[in-house]
Amino acid sequence: MDDAELEDKEQLAIAPEEKKELCLNPVSGDGTPPTGEEGTEDEPVFVYKDIVNKLKAHQIIGAKFLWSHIAVEPNGFGCVLADFMGLGKTLQVITTVQAFLSKKVKDDSGDLRPRHKHVLILAPTICVRNWEAEVVKWLGKKEARRMGLHTLESSREKKMSDRVNVVKAWHKRGGVLIMGYELYRLLVLQSSGDEKIAAGNQKYAHLIKQMYPCLSDPGPDLIVLDEGHRVRDHKSKMVKALAHVKTSRRIILTGYPLQNHLEEYWTMVNFARQDYLGSLDEFKNRFVDPIKNGQCIDSSESDLRLARQRAFVLTRELKSLVLRRDQQYLFKQLPPKKEYVLMCKLTDAQAELYRTFLECGVPRRGKNQQVDVLGGYHISLAISNHPDVLLETFKQLQEEMRNGTLKKKGSAAKRGRIANIFGIEDGDDDYDPFVDIPGNSPPVESRGTRVVGDSSDEGEEEVLNALDALSQKTTPKLAPSTSDVLHRLSFAKNFMENYVPKKLESSGKMMLLMQILSECQDIGDRVILFSQSIPTLNTIGLMIAKHNKYQRRHAKRLSYLRIDGGTPQQDRFRQIAQFNDLEEDIDLIMISTKAGGEGINLCAGNRIIIFDVCWNPCNDSQSMCRSYRFGQTKPVFVYRFVTAGTMEKKVYDLQIRKEGVAKRIVDEKTMERKNVLNCSNFSNTSNWNIDALRHNAN
C-alpha cells in the first residue's frame, strides 16, 4: 500500500471525533458496515466505543488491516504491522484484539458464544507491564476485566508453580495473556521435550508438560509478537519454540523489520505466513544475492539495475502482508526532530591506550588464533568511552586473581564479569553481542583525531576485515573465552600503573556529555542517555557525582535515574513513571541499550544521547524513538556520539550499507551506491593513517 493509497483511504475515514461507530469489516470504502445478523460471518464488527474517538486516521487503517488478515474464516492468516516507532502499534493491536475476543457465533442450539477465546501477546520483558498498563488505559479497568487480562511476569511470579497457575487460569477462563519471550521459550521447549527441564524444576515437571497445549498446540487462537524483529535468526531457540505454534493467526509488530540482513526479514515474514516467500534458499537466489551484488560502490550498471528490480519485486510481493507507515506521519503531527552525529576526539590518555591496544592488545581465539571480533571491538569501545571503563574490570579481575577466586575455568560468574567489559548485560533476556552498531543518519563532516602510528594499522585492519565479514552473515552468539582474560587485558597493565582515574578530562565523550547535561539543565530539557555498556554507565555516574560535589547551589546539581539489566521490573516501571512526571526534579535517565531501548515511553525527555555505537542499527533507532512519539510536546534533539579516527567510526560507516537496503525494501526509498562501503576499503591500510587524521584535526 503506497502513500497515495493511504492518503485516499484516510480522506475516506471520517475524523475520529465525528465517529460514533467504527466498523472494522466495512463492505465499501466509505465505511458502510455489512448487514449480517449477529453470530453470522458477515455481521458488522465495531471498534470498542471508548476507543473510537481516540484512534487517529492511520491507526484506523492499521486496525482494519490487522482484522482483514486474522478474521478470515476459517483459520485466518498472519501479517506484519511495521509502522515506524511511535505511531501507536500497541493501540492498533488492542483495538483489534478487543474486537477479536468480542465476536460471537451461534452454536448448534442457536445460542451465541465467543468465536475466539485465547490471545497470547509476547513482548520483551521490560515491555510486559507496559502492555498491561496500555490495555487498562485504552479499554478501562472494567472492560479489561471482562475481556480477561492476564499478565505473566518472571519477576512477579518467581516460582514455577505460580507461573504455571497463571497460564492455566488464562487457558481455562480465556482472554489475553501477556508474557516475556524468554519465559515463553523456556516453557514451550521444556514442555515439548526439546529441552531438558532444569534440575531445580524437576518437581514441577508434570505441571510444565501441561503448558504445551496451552501455549502451542492447540494453543491460542491468535498470537502477537511485539518487537517481532527479535524473531530474526532462523536457527535460534526462540524460532524453534515458535515453530510449535499451531494457529495461523499471527501478528508481528516491529518498527524496524529489516536490521542487518535480508535473511532476517525472511525469517520474520516466514513466521507470519509460512512459505510466503518460498524456502530460504529460494529467497537467497531470488532476492538476497542480486540485491547484495548491487550494493557495492564498484557494482556494474547491470548489477545495480538487477538489484533495483529485485528490490521492487520484493516490496511489491510484501504489500499485502506488510503494512508500513514511516516517520513522515510523526513529522506531520509532532514538533520537529533533529539528529546530530558528534565526532569526539580522543584525549592524549585515550590515544596512548588505544595505540597500545592496536599494537599488542587485539584479542584472538581458537587454535587458528583468529581475531576475536567481539572482544576487539568492545575493548576498543571501552577505551573510546573512557579509560576508567577498562580500568574497572581490569582491577576487579586482578583482585580476584590475587584472592584465588578466578581459578574456576569458564565459571558463570567469571563469564558475566568478562561480558560486562564488552557491554553484555547479564540481566537481558536474549542479548546478541554480534548484533549490537547504529546507522540511521549519514555522518556529518567533522574533523577528528587519529591517534595511532602506521605501525598499528595492521591490528586494526585485521579486526575490521573480520567485522566486515560478520556483516555479511549471521554470526553465532559467542561469549569471549575466559581462560586468558587477564592476558587479553595485559596490554593495558603499564598504562594503568601510572593512570589517574576519575578524571573528566580523560575522555572526549565524557567532557562533551557533561557540557550538554549542564546546558540542558539550564534550559529545563530532560535528557535520556543510552549506552550498551554497564561499566560506562558506572563511569558516567561517577562523573556526575564528582560534578555535584563541587556545586554549591543545589539547583546546579544533576539528578538522575538509571535502568539496566539488573534493575528489577517493578523498579523499571516506577522509574519510567517518575521520569515522565514533570513534577519530579529529574535531569537525566541513564539506560542500558538492551534493557530499555524497546517498547517504553519517555516523552518527558526531549534530548537523547546515544553514547556509543551498537552493532545493530535497530537498537539505536529504537532508543531514539523512546521520546519522539505521540505525546511529545517539545522539539526533540538526538546526539549520537562517535569517536573519530577509531574502529567505532569505521563500524558506524559500515552500517550505512544496512540502512540503504532497509530504506529500499521497507520504506521504498531509492538505494544509492554512495551510501555503500566496499568491503575492500577495509583492507587498504592508507585509510588508517591515524597520524594524518590527527594532523588535520583541530
TrEMBL record:
Residues 70-275 form the Helicase ATP-binding domain. Its main location: nucleus. Pfam families: Helicase_C (PF00271), SNF2-rel_dom (PF00176). Transmembrane segments: none annotated. One of its GO terms (cellular component) is nucleus. PROSITE patterns: HELICASE_ATP_BIND_1, HELICASE_CTER. InterPro entries: ARIP4-like, Helicase_ATP-bd, Helicase_C-like, P-loop_NTPase, SNF2-like_sf, SNF2/RAD54-like_C, SNF2_N. Keywords: ATP-binding, DNA-binding, Helicase, Hydrolase, Nucleotide-binding, Nucleus. Residues 18-42 are annotated as: Disordered. The keyword Transferase does not apply. It is found in: Nucleus. It comes from the Eukaryota. Residues 512-677 form the Helicase C-terminal domain. CDD domains: DEXHc_ATRX-like, SF2_C_SNF. GO terms for molecular function: ATP binding; ATP hydrolysis activity; DNA binding; helicase activity. Belongs to the SNF2/RAD54 helicase family. This is Helicase ATP-binding domain-containing protein.
